[in-house]
Amino acid sequence: MTNQPQKKALLVMHYGTPKSIDDVLPYYTHIRRGRPPEPAALQDLIDRYQSIGGPSPLTKISEDQAKAIQAGLTRRGIETTLYVGAKHTHPFVGEAVEQMAADGITDAVGVVLAPHYSSFSIAAYRHYALDARDLHGPSVKIEFVERWGTLPALIDGLSDRVKVQLDGWNPEETLVIFSAHSLPQRIMAEGDPYPEELMETSKLVADKLEIPHWTFAFQSASTTGEPWLGPDILDVISLNASQYKNIVCCTVGFVSDHLEVLYDLGIEARDRCAELGLNFRRVDTINADEKIMDAVAGLAADLFPKS
Questions:
Q1: Which site from 40, 60, 98, 260 is most exposed, i.e. has the minimal number of CB atoms within 10 Å?
Q2: Residue 197, CB-side half-sphere exposure with 13 Å CA sphere
Q3: For residue range 147-173, what is the model confidence (pLDDT) as tens digits?
């Protein structure tokens, strides 16, 4: 009896975004677990997408990031088939895993395009993937990269981008605000490491650049009727308006240009600074940075079974 030959896969997971304005309703409805949004809420989201020029580039960027991670595995001698799944749009994570099983994949490593662990991100994607695996291919082995927020390549890449935006500004007159998506405050009672991991990434960047004035804020909280983690970035900008002349916003939680970056930071935070007479700059997101994606590939490579 011979052992089944290994067929390896890279499963890359991201949040998802509507493909067109017409797709905003089903996308929003899926986020709301099948409950259609109120017309005013739907229109508000449509307006936000239209203000950044239409649907965000998240899907394309996520695919480019996935291909870059796969290329990093290839450089390490690990040949994989690439599958990309989203949380809220087709192909869903479960659909990607179903296809893996149909293709005869034996071993896979999952990477979520979010560097920090939380029950709402990494744990949720893992749950979706394993549920689909159990349903469609129980023999498929899937390991997961659970966090990558302290990768030296990520810290270097973020630091380089922050440094560009600090150029020409007096450090003593400048506040750097690191940010990430807020989550319901109840995760704190559950011991979720998300806030601490975000702060660790922010501190590593700030220490590397020796930034004298920096802080951390959350952004993009949803209106669900329960408290969400704060402080909110717009409030932080307002509270510091009398102390600084310049604001630099750097997301450490988002790794690609999409609505929460292009609108929440690029428009809302920018406009709040303008209202208060502050200069504003937004740090570029990492997107498909080859060095960073290669470092993520290094983490994934360690999880594949040795041939």
A1: 40
A2: 21
A3: 999 999 999 999 999 999 999 999 999
Q: Is 55 exposed, middle or buried (CB count within 10 Å of its CB: 0-12, 13-18, 19+)?
A: buried
**pTM summary value:** 0.96
Element housing 250 (H / E)? strand 246-251
**Residue 175 and residue 214 in contact, taking contact as beta carbons nearer than 8 Å:** yes
Q: What is the pLDDT of residues 228-242, one digit of tens each?
A: 999 999 999 999 999
Cα 282 from Cα 162, distance rounded (Å)? 9
- Name the burial class of residue 163, with classes exposed (0-12), middle (13-18) and buried (19+) by CB atoms within 10 angstroms of its CB: middle
- Please tell me what DSSP assigns to residue 5: P
Q: 178, 182, 124, 119: which is closest to 154 by C-alpha?
A: 178
Q: How far apart are CA 306 and CA 262, in angstroms?
A: 41
Rounded distance between C-alpha atoms, residue 158 and residue 151, angstroms: 11
Q: Angle at Cα 179 formed by Cα 206 and Cα 266, nearest 5°?
A: 110
Contact 16, 86 (CB under 8 A): yes
